[in-house]
Design goal:
The complex is a heterodimer of chains A (503) and B (494).
Chain A (H helix, E strand, L loop, with lengths): L12 E4 L2 E14 L38 H13 L7 E2 L2 E4 L9 E4 L9 E8 L2 E14 L3 E3 L8 E3 L6 E7 L6 H18 L11 E10 L3 H8 L9 E6 L2 H20 L7 E6 L4 E7 L9 E2 L6 E2 L2 H8 L6 H12 L3 H8 L2 H11 L4 H19 L10 H12 L5 H14 L3 H7 L8 H14 L1 H9 L4 H11 L6 H11 L3
Parallel strand pairs in A: 12-13
Antiparallel strand pairs in A: 1-2, 2-10, 2-11, 3-16, 4-5, 4-15, 6-7, 7-10, 8-9, 11-12, 13-14
Helix pairs in contact in A: 2-4, 6-7, 8-9, 8-10, 10-11, 13-15, 13-16, 15-16
Chain B lengths: L8 H10 L4 H13 L7 E4 L1 H17 L9 E5 L26 H8 L3 E6 L38 H8 L5 E6 L5 H7 L2 E4 L19 E6 L2 H11 L29 E5 L9 H16 L3 E5 L7 H16 L20 H12 L2 H14 L5 H23 L4 E5 L15 H5 L6 H6 L3 E8 L5 E8 L4 H15 L10
Parallel strand pairs in B: 2-3, 2-4, 7-8, 7-9
Antiparallel strand pairs in B: 1-3, 4-6, 5-6, 5-10, 9-11, 10-11
The chains are: A alpha+beta (503), B alpha/beta (494).
């Protein structure tokens, strides 16, 4: 059995002038489905094409054009639901959300308000070893992305790029179970990690392929527990929604600012207005985008161009059979199988590619040693160069060779680091490097003894001092290592010197 | 041979196959008739060059013996169908200059079968109207006039151009679309046959949407047999339309056997409206007798929710239309208003749509927006959807009781004077009273000319069939047509 027990973190508390406040946070994460074609058209979803190069007639809402559901997108949404241990709804339906904007050619977004494809699920958000928050997922629905309006290319005109129009998004809606800015960021990190493991979203936040709307409210200690007991939202404060966040750092900053803003209002005897806000990272503040009164009336109604979506349990089961080992299970297995700490297991499983790399290194070797080398040497070096793991210049096999050479005493730990650096920069094989560069450890005691004798003969004063003060023996070790170009086995050198100094 | 344009599809097909006539001759007869009928304002985009080119290609196919039934048959295409490279405006100014780069599935199937297009036909703007008076091209004139009276009459709507073109022999048949009666009412007003198929039978892909859950394309022809022949080429599963039905097509012409013995025809009591003209009442009774004479059994039936159909229709159709027409925003195609200094996107939307849409379209967009808005959705849209379910169930119940088809009047009156109802939307909407139930229930319905009123104007009867049973419906309609023996033609005045 995998050990997945954990403690719940304490909610973040903000001290106000009138007492303590707690935060209640829920997120709506928009994840671009990693499909080749759009949700309702065959146009490509590839990033970076010329503007308006990837637009089908239906994406441009030409008269008489009709949407047809892309089965691949449905499969990826189902896979996501299964990965979040969620209920899969065998019947779902698409609705139209009506509003006008130039980058929304149809004048409506096709979404799933009334009958989403995925129901309730959960995400375990790791905060620190042994501490995690279970965040409930309310639903996941599929919807079309909008295009892009470009306002800064011409003083008098706006331009529209429809490449993104109609790309499938999963909106993953959490319950208000998140209790602080760090938890919110950790939730997005964890969700992104799961989606990347599943291969259903590439998680690229810079390109906007993963972005979050953050709902924040504040309440007094004890109120949240009343809400939990009753699921009655009236125990919670009025929430504001911060739109379109695509950085973990900004999510935390925005929540922190927003909570303090709401607390200041409440402590001032004012009320929080339910509204949509935007975060300005330059000023570090949120500001009102539109109030509840100004909110759009989206006039949702069932999309008459699409019949309700019926899927079969057998098809869902087939998808379930393709689910990979997910982060929680992999992490627990790493701890159990390789004897590493939960922290190290967390580092190694953060990205699927890292975990795979590590397991290739660790195969048939000491897991802890492999973990140390991957985390400390390799990750350290990759970070310095800003390389992702899949661009590592040294292969798992090569790193494994270094560990093998170290384990069988062919090279010393210090030399191993030199070999790593050479292999990393040149791509040469470690065994060949050690051979060609003459980096093998000298274990021949005769040769080491000759070196020790030579150093002692050259330094009679030091020998005399060392015989009185054993702490000075280290000086001899250093001299011998220097004389052997670092290749002497340090253990043998130590032993010989101790013997010669008469200890 | 003269007057080739007056042939039926069936006759023309036989003559073409026999080599008695060529499609080019037939097409030129229609083009000549069309050129001489500008007063009717039925054809709004003429495509004579394309027509002759298509006719030549059809003649080549006919020569090779590779000739489907529609090969070489000149047709008019309603302006609602997108036709590649040919203006397709849904009779709206907002689509001024729009020439699609694609061909609607239905018109594409007709052309693949060798049909010839003489031009695009007038209609009510976005198919919203019952008199063809909401068209940006101006109204169509009905080729029929009351005896001894030159007053201009409506051809009905929204497929008014299609109806007038077929009745005036400008083409052998035409495509129509029917959302609440837009094929059947104009067919009845001009004395031709109009078939509204089962929802999902003809692809909606490439047909400008009015109300997606109700819209259905169908043939408007001179005879029931012609409707079967043309329908065969229009219908069929289309993976590009998710609401299209993946069902095999029977041979619809072969379904016309002339034998309806033992079939049960339902006469729904709810269709006997207060104030219904005696002539309509009499026509309905005559139709009943004709079918009985042909061997059918007559059953008095009840469709209890009929009276709620019209209000439900005028909630659902505008609701869908308000959303479907949101795309006409001046951004990508069609009309865009000239903007003033300082005007932004909101002004662009408002001015473009104010200039581009006519009053009836604006009225329905506003009704639709209202019934979908927060706080009114349940009271209007959801309630209308429930009514729709009940209406559908009414029909399912009578079909389950053994009724094969239902006979009703097609319209509450004969063709009325242009302008007569234009300023009274509610009166105009009442034109659809006998036809909307069929759309709400997704059933096939057909209007068959059955007689003339006291002023010499054509009147039609409607037969409503079981879902996917257009073959049986056409067979019963053919019997009715046969017994009614309607042969009158409008006296040519144009």
């Amino acid at each position: 059995m995998l050990d997945l027990t954990y403690e719940t973190p304490k909610p973040k508390v903000i001290q106000g002038a009138t007492g303590d406040w707690e935060l209640v946070i829920g997120l709506e994460v928009h994840a671009q489905v990693a499909s080749n074609a759009k949700l309702f058209s065959g146009a490509s979803t590839e990033f970076g094409a010329e503007p308006n190069a990837q637009v089908a007639f239906v994406d441009a809402a030409m008269p008489g054009m009709l949407p047809v559901i892309n089965e691949g997108c449905i499969a990826l949404a189902v896979k996501t639901g299964l990965g979040l241990k969620a209920q899969i709804n065998l019947t779902s339906a698409f609705d139209r959300k009506n509003y006008f904007y130039p980058d929304l050619p149809q004048g409506y977004q096709i979404s799933q308000l009334y009958h989403p494809i995925v129901g309730e699920g959960e995400v375990l958000v790791d905060m620190e070893p042994g501490v995690a928050r279970l965040v409930r997922i309310e639903r996941i629905h599929l919807e079309q992305d909008a295009g892009k309006s470009i306002h800064d290319m011409d003083p008098n005109m706006s331009f529209v790029d429809l490449n993104r129009t109609g790309v499938a998004l999963m909106e993953i809606v959490s319950r208000p179970d998140i209790r602080g800015p760090e938890e919110a960021a950790a939730y997005v990190v964890k969700l992104r990690q799961i989606l990347r493991y599943l291969g259903t979203c590439d998680g690229n936040m810079q390109n906007g392929n993963l972005r979050a709307d953050v709902n924040v409210s504040v309440c007094r200690p004890g109120d949240y527990e009343k809400y939990q007991a009753s699921q009655d939202f009236s125990h919670l404060g009025t929430r504001c929604e911060i739109k379109n966040m695509n950085s973990m750092r900004f999510i935390q900053q925005a929540i922190d600012f927003e909570a303090k803003r709401q607390i200041a209002l409440l402590e001032d005897g004012k009320t929080v207005d339910q509204e949509t806000r935007l975060y300005d990272p330059d000023k570090g503040e949120t500001r009102s985008m539109r109030s509840k009164e100004e909110a759009h009336d989206y006039r949702y109604f069932p999309c008459p161009d699409l019949l309700p979506l019926e899927i079969e349990q057998g098809w869902v089961d087939d998808i379930a059979a393709t689910l990979p080992e997910l982060p929680d299970a992999k992490k627990a297995r790493f701890v159990a199988d390789y004897g590493m700490t939960e922290y190290d297991a967390g580092v190694l499983t953060a990205e699927l590619d890292s975990a795979v790399f590590f397991e290739n290194v660790a195969q048939g070797r000491d897991g802890k040693l492999a973990a140390n080398w991957v985390i400390n040497e390799l990750f350290g070096r990759l970070n310095k160069d800003d390389h992702p793991i899949d661009a590592s210049p040294i292969s798992a096999g090569q790193l494994g060779q270094i560990i093998d050479l170290l384990s069988d005493d062919t090279i010393s730990g210090k030399i191993a680091k030199d070999v790593f650096e050479i292999a990393y920069t040149t791509g040469r094989d470690p065994a060949e490097i050690v051979e060609t560069e003459g980096m093998k450890q000298v274990t021949d005691t005769g040769a080491i003894e000759a070196a020790v004798d030579q150093v002692m003969a050259d330094n009679p004063d030091q020998v005399a001092k060392a015989k009185e003060n054993p702490k000075l023996a280290g000086w001899f070790v250093g001299q011998v290592m220097k004389a052997t170009g670092g290749k002497a086995n340090p253990k043998a050198v130590n032993q010989l010197i101790a013997k010669k100094l008469g200890r | 041979m003269s007057d080739l344009n007056t042939l039926t599809i069936a006759d023309a097909r036989d003559k073409l196959r026999a080599g008695d006539i060529t499609s080019v001759e037939l097409t030129e007869a229609c083009l000549n008739a069309t050129a001489a009928a500008e007063k009717l304002n039925a054809v709004v985009h003429h495509t004579p060059d394309l027509a002759v080119e298509q006719a030549k290609a059809a003649d080549a196919r006919l020569k090779k013996g590779d000739a489907p039934a529609m090969c070489g048959i000149p047709l008019g295409i309603k302006d609602l169908f997108c036709t590649k490279g040919v203006a397709s405006q849904a009779a709206s100014a907002i689509l001024n200059g729009f020439k699609p780069e694609y061909e609607s599935t239905v018109s594409g199937q007709l052309f693949d079968a060798g049909a010839v297009m003489i031009g695009k036909l007038n209609m009510d703007e976005f198919a919203m109207g019952s008199s063809n008076e909401t068209s940006t091209y101006g109204n169509v004139l009905n080729p029929w006039r009351a005896d001894g009276n030159d007053t201009a009459l409506t051809p009905g709507g929204s497929s008014g151009g299609s109806a007038a073109a077929v009745a005036a022999d400008l083409c052998l048949a035409a495509t129509g679309t029917d959302t609440g009666g837009s094929i059947r009412q104009p067919a009845a007003f001009v004395g031709i046959t109009g078939l509204k198929p089962t929802y999902g039978r003809c692809s909606r892909w490439g047909v400008v949407a009015f109300a997606s859950s109700l819209d259905q394309a169908g043939p408007m022809t001179k005879t029931v047999r012609d409707a079967a022949i043309m329908f065969q080429a229009m219908a069929g599963y289309d993976p590009k339309d998710s609401t299209s039905a993946d069902l095999a097509l029977p041979d619809f012409e072969a379904a016309i056997t002339g034998d309806i013995k033992g079939k049960t025809i339902g006469i729904p009591k709810e269709y006997r409206m207060d104030g219904m003209p005696d002539e309509i009442e009499k026509l309905w009774a005559d139709g009943r007798d004709m079918l009985q004479d042909a061997g059918a059994k007559i059953a008095d039936i009840s469709l209890p929710h009929t009276k709620y159909a019209l209000p439900a229709y005028y909630v659902i159709a505008p609701a869908e239309a308000s959303s479907n027409l949101a795309r006409y925003d001046g951004v990508r195609y069609g009309h865009r208003a000239a903007l003033g200094q300082g005007d932004g996107i909101t002004e662009m939307y408002e001015k473009t749509r104010a200039e581009g849409f006519g009053d009836e379209v604006k009225r329905r967009v506003m009704i639709g927006t209202y019934v979908l808005s927060a706080g009114f959705y349940d009271a209007y849209y959801n309630r209308a959807r429930r009514v729709r379910t009940l209406i559908k169930k009414d029909f399912e119940d009578v079909f389950a009781q053994g009724v094969d088809a239902i006979l009703t009047p097609a319209t509450p009156s004969a063709a009325f004077e242009l302008g007569q109802e234009f300023d009274d939307p509610v009166q105009m909407y009442l034109n659809d009273v006998f036809t909307v139930t069929v759309n709400l229930a997704g059933l096939p319905g057909i209007a068959v000319p059955a007689g003339l009123d006291g002023k010499g104007l054509p009147l039609g009867l409607q037969l409503i069939g079981k879902p996917w049973e257009e073959g049986e419906l056409l067979n019963i309609a053919a019997s009715l047509e046969d017994r009614a023996g309607f042969v009158a033609k409008p006296a040519k005045w144009w």
